[in-house]
Amino acid sequence: MSEVLNANPTIRSASDLPSRRREPTKKSKSKRPFGVLSSAIPESAYTPDPFNPSSSSENESSEDEDEVEPIDEQEIYDLIAPIQDPEHPLTLGSLSVVNLPDISLTPTLPPSSLAPASNLPPITTVTVLVTPTITHCSLATVIGLGVRVRLEQALPPRFRVDVRIKEGTHSTAEQVNRQLGDKERVAAALENGTLMGVLRKMLEGC
Q1: Contact 147, 176 (CB under 8 A)
Q2: Residue 15 pLDDT > 80, yes or no?
Q3: What mean pLDDT is predicted for residues 121-148?
Q4: What is the DSSP string of 75-128?
Q5: Which residues, in sequence order, are bridge partners of residue 91?
Q6: SS3 helix, strand, coil % of the chain, rounded to 5?
Q7: Reduced to 3 states, what is the DSSP secondary structure of residue 164?
Q8: What span, in angstroms and rounded, lies between the C-alpha atoms of 155 and 137?
Q9: What is the pLDDT of residue 131?
């Protein structure tokens, strides 16, 4: 990895990267502390004051505030774009290794098939197509593993992760895709201490 494979990669400026301007989230009105003290103080100590007229309205609005926004392609991109390239001190987003149009979410198992009366969200497959900076990049598998590890750590269990090399962008894409799609080979690779060190460095900025 000491020899630079692509000395002059194309770099996108931060202003060119896709992003979503989010409104500031409302702060929770709960007075219950978090952290080391949360287990030391009983839940009953933080029940709303029944004589406080604002407590009932706070409870009614809590459900709306606690609603989780659905995860979309932009949010997936936001999770993986900051990953650092293993060769350059640049992110996968700035190098166009990961791109918003190459991310898709596909419901693979509707909740009705699991429990008809359930309100559980569907099982969804997240597909990310990775574009190496050069067609003979020897680090394509490492980059794919970094994307996969990042998503599997960040997403809820109902998401299945499928990371592949984009067709026509790498000379051994088929072989790399077989490695990335083989759960046993991925698990074995993640037991390699040297590789895990590389992945941790890649994910430091996430």
Answers
A1: no
A2: no
A3: 95
A4: HHHHHHTTPBPSSSSSBTTTTTSS-GGGEEEEEEE-GGGT-TT--PPPEEEEEE
A5: 84
A6: 35, 10, 50
A7: strand
A8: 28
A9: 98
DSSP E strand boundaries for the chain: 103-109, 123-130, 159-165
Q: Is 81 left (phi over 0), alpha (psi -120 to 50) or beta?
A: alpha
Tally Cβ neighbours within 10 Å of residue 12.
14
Confidence at residue 60, expressed as pLDDT on a 0 to 100 scale: 52
The pTM (predicted TM-score) of the whole model is 0.70
Q: Which residue has the higher pLDDT, 110 or 70?
A: 70
Residue 36 tokens, joined? 């080391």
**Cα 74 to Cα 94: distance, rounded to the nearest angstrom:** 15
Residue 26: pLDDT band with limits 50, 70, 90: very low
In this structure, which amino acid lies at residue 58? Answer: E
Tokens of 158: 């109902």
